[in-house]
Amino acid sequence: MTTKREPIHMVWFKRDLRLEDHEPLQRALEQKEPVLCLFVFEQLLIEDSHYSQRHWDFIKESIRDLNSALKVYETKILAINSDIISACNLISNSYQIKQVFSHQESGIQVTFDRDKAFKRYCKNNLIAWHESIQNGVIRGLKNRDLWFENWNNIMSQPLIQFTAKISDFLNIDAIHELENQCQTTNLETLKDKPFQQGGTKTANKYLQSFLHTRHKDYMFHISKPEKSRKSCSRLSPYIAWGNLSVRQVYQASKANYESSRFTKQLSAFRSRLRWQAHFIQKFEMEHVMEKVSVNKGYHKLKKSISNQYQVAWKTGQTGFPLVDASMRCLNETGYINFRMRALLVSFFTHILWQPWQDASKHLSQQFLDFEPGIHFPQLQMQAGETGINNLRIYNPIKNSLEHDPDGTFIKRWVPELRNLELPFVHEPYLMTPLDQQFNNFELGVTYPFPIVDLKSRRKQASDILWNMKNNSEVRNESFRILNKHTINNRSRMIDNKD
């Protein structure tokens, strides 16, 4: 005789680790049966080389924050090591899963393949799977007609309020019973890590401090490697992992607009929220970008791989101080500003002449805010392999002098240069043997010689890439990309006052 199983609804949390403005959660709570909240630490992602421990720790901190908020409802997130299908099979031994609610995910290929398999599983097991769009990114678009209007409409809709009562959830005792049958995840993380801490509570602190005080210098410091660490919002990891929705951030910024004396700074910030969604939408529509250049004309571009160059770049030992400071800072803290990210990619792909694919995994592992829909389009844009963007080959010395003129950032992250006179902080290779003697400094020992000749390498990259941009296949692909992704009246992407 088959035991009748209690029907439940399940919310599958992924990159949406919050309670507020969470459509799948609220839709589940509107059903009659109890709701189980699930997060699966999937082996397919843990083993994927784009991820690292800093990501899993951020997620664990976010789940702990969620559990703290859910405690009053006498429930918690069921956090287990498994895959989604095995997790559902295990839960189905005790409960009848009627519906699964989740957000759509614009992730790497393995998550797309997983979702296709889960869709088949749900169909075969008579489970209704409902997916909601995330942050205005729409699946299945063929072009960008009316994309701006749709995105703006989504951002303007009222926030979805989290409203629940104790009886809405599967209770804590029932979850403990499920935990006894699963391989649960230890949610403890190391303390005093040099990374931003996960969770909506911390995310809101960053949001409020930015909107109330830090935004005043946003555009003035956005390109400065040291000053940007305070003047930029620092919200990217909280948006990437869904501790806050883009709509929450967008509307909070608008609400603060009238009371701020620095409205241009907030307008510029909101325009970047739009551009973030634009790039994720582009990745959603061009998923091949994870592996190959979106412009097929660049598939014939071949570069010789140098393990020596790549190791020097990854460890901040290239002999170019701003490049090395940026990489060491990123490796240590998980964050650098946009310009320094662009500099690292440009240096790797242009000056070292290495394929962008070889930079992808190291950078994604280090970026605490790793977001596939931003990561791959930006890599290709900075590598100059889209055919539609301006070719930018960043000069690390020029950027050093312009954006870190007093050497504060370099001295902090490349302490070998801390006691040198300022000109040598930017260009230590200019020191004569006598200069080195006076400073108790030896080039090639205390700090490496430049790994390549900057001038000749910049010229080589420029000549090759400008020549390729005029290639007929590159140009035809450029027209295709523009027709598919160009937003009508791009100036509307720049927020003034709405």
Automatic annotation (TrEMBL):
<dbReference type="GO" id="GO:0003677">
    <property type="term" value="F:DNA binding"/>
</dbReference>
<feature type="binding site">
    <location>
        <position position="269"/>
    </location>
    <ligand>
        <name>FAD</name>
    </ligand>
</feature>
<dbReference type="Pfam" id="PF03441">
    <property type="entry name" value="FAD_binding_7"/>
</dbReference>
<dbReference type="GO" id="GO:0006950">
    <property type="term" value="P:response to stress"/>
</dbReference>
<keyword id="KW-0274">FAD</keyword>
<dbReference type="InterPro" id="IPR018394">
    <property type="entry name" value="DNA_photolyase_1_CS_C"/>
</dbReference>
<feature type="binding site">
    <location>
        <position position="218"/>
    </location>
    <ligand>
        <name>FAD</name>
    </ligand>
</feature>
<dbReference type="GO" id="GO:0003904">
    <property type="term" value="F:deoxyribodipyrimidine photo-lyase activity"/>
</dbReference>
<dbReference type="InterPro" id="IPR036155">
    <property type="entry name" value="Crypto/Photolyase_N_sf"/>
</dbReference>
<feature type="domain" description="Photolyase/cryptochrome alpha/beta">
    <location>
        <begin position="7"/>
        <end position="137"/>
    </location>
</feature>
<dbReference type="InterPro" id="IPR036134">
    <property type="entry name" value="Crypto/Photolyase_FAD-like_sf"/>
</dbReference>
<dbReference type="GO" id="GO:0009416">
    <property type="term" value="P:response to light stimulus"/>
</dbReference>
<keyword id="KW-0456">Lyase</keyword>
<dbReference type="InterPro" id="IPR002081">
    <property type="entry name" value="Cryptochrome/DNA_photolyase_1"/>
</dbReference>
<dbReference type="GO" id="GO:0071949">
    <property type="term" value="F:FAD binding"/>
</dbReference>
<dbReference type="InterPro" id="IPR014729">
    <property type="entry name" value="Rossmann-like_a/b/a_fold"/>
</dbReference>
<keyword id="KW-0285">Flavoprotein</keyword>
<protein>
    <submittedName>
        <fullName>Deoxyribodipyrimidine photo-lyase family protein (Cryptochrome)</fullName>
    </submittedName>
</protein>
<dbReference type="GO" id="GO:0006139">
    <property type="term" value="P:nucleobase-containing compound metabolic process"/>
</dbReference>
<dbReference type="InterPro" id="IPR006050">
    <property type="entry name" value="DNA_photolyase_N"/>
</dbReference>
<keyword id="KW-0157">Chromophore</keyword>
<dbReference type="InterPro" id="IPR005101">
    <property type="entry name" value="Cryptochr/Photolyase_FAD-bd"/>
</dbReference>
<dbReference type="Pfam" id="PF00875">
    <property type="entry name" value="DNA_photolyase"/>
</dbReference>
<comment type="similarity">
    <text>Belongs to the DNA photolyase family.</text>
</comment>
